[in-house]
Predict the 3D structure of the following.
Amino acid sequence: MAGNDIEAKGINPGLIVLIVIGGLVLTFLIGNYALYIYAQKNLPPKKKKPVSKKKMKRERMKQGVAPPGE
Protein backbone atom coordinates (compact mmCIF):
# COMPACT_ATOMS: atom_id res chain seq x y z
CA MET A 1 0.00 0.00 0.00
CA ALA A 2 2.84 2.40 0.80
CA GLY A 3 4.33 1.90 -2.68
CA ASN A 4 1.09 2.93 -4.34
CA ASP A 5 0.78 6.06 -2.21
CA ILE A 6 4.26 7.27 -3.22
CA GLU A 7 3.43 6.70 -6.89
CA ALA A 8 0.13 8.60 -6.60
CA LYS A 9 1.60 11.57 -4.69
CA GLY A 10 4.70 11.94 -6.90
CA ILE A 11 4.96 14.58 -9.60
CA ASN A 12 4.38 13.36 -13.13
CA PRO A 13 7.80 12.20 -14.50
CA GLY A 14 6.96 13.64 -17.92
CA LEU A 15 6.51 17.04 -16.32
CA ILE A 16 9.89 16.77 -14.61
CA VAL A 17 11.56 15.93 -17.94
CA LEU A 18 9.85 18.88 -19.63
CA ILE A 19 10.89 21.26 -16.85
CA VAL A 20 14.52 20.05 -16.95
CA ILE A 21 14.76 20.29 -20.76
CA GLY A 22 13.01 23.67 -20.76
CA GLY A 23 15.41 24.93 -18.11
CA LEU A 24 18.43 23.77 -20.09
CA VAL A 25 17.17 25.41 -23.29
CA LEU A 26 16.40 28.63 -21.43
CA THR A 27 19.85 28.60 -19.80
CA PHE A 28 21.47 28.04 -23.21
CA LEU A 29 19.59 30.94 -24.81
CA ILE A 30 20.29 33.33 -21.92
CA GLY A 31 23.97 32.32 -21.96
CA ASN A 32 24.22 32.94 -25.69
CA TYR A 33 22.59 36.36 -25.31
CA ALA A 34 24.95 37.30 -22.48
CA LEU A 35 28.00 36.22 -24.51
CA TYR A 36 26.73 38.19 -27.52
CA ILE A 37 26.32 41.37 -25.45
CA TYR A 38 29.76 40.84 -23.87
CA ALA A 39 31.36 40.34 -27.29
CA GLN A 40 29.72 43.46 -28.72
CA LYS A 41 31.14 45.57 -25.89
CA ASN A 42 34.62 44.09 -25.52
CA LEU A 43 35.80 42.68 -28.83
CA PRO A 44 37.33 45.04 -31.39
CA PRO A 45 35.37 45.54 -34.61
CA LYS A 46 36.28 43.32 -37.56
CA LYS A 47 39.06 44.65 -39.74
CA LYS A 48 38.11 45.40 -43.31
CA LYS A 49 39.90 43.49 -46.03
CA PRO A 50 42.69 45.51 -47.66
CA VAL A 51 41.66 46.97 -51.01
CA SER A 52 43.83 45.75 -53.87
CA LYS A 53 45.93 48.22 -55.87
CA LYS A 54 43.99 47.31 -59.00
CA LYS A 55 40.70 48.32 -57.37
CA MET A 56 42.21 51.54 -56.00
CA LYS A 57 43.45 52.43 -59.48
CA ARG A 58 40.01 51.73 -60.96
CA GLU A 59 38.31 53.92 -58.33
CA ARG A 60 40.71 56.79 -59.02
CA MET A 61 40.05 56.51 -62.75
CA LYS A 62 36.30 56.73 -62.08
CA GLN A 63 36.80 59.88 -60.01
CA GLY A 64 39.02 61.41 -62.67
CA VAL A 65 42.16 61.66 -60.52
CA ALA A 66 45.31 60.92 -62.49
CA PRO A 67 47.39 58.17 -60.87
CA PRO A 68 50.85 59.31 -59.72
CA GLY A 69 53.61 58.93 -62.28
CA GLU A 70 51.40 59.56 -65.31
The chain has a mean pLDDT of 81. Residues 30 and 36 are 10 Å apart (CA to CA). Helices lie at 2-9, 13-42, 53-63. Residues 13-42 form the longest helix (30 residues).
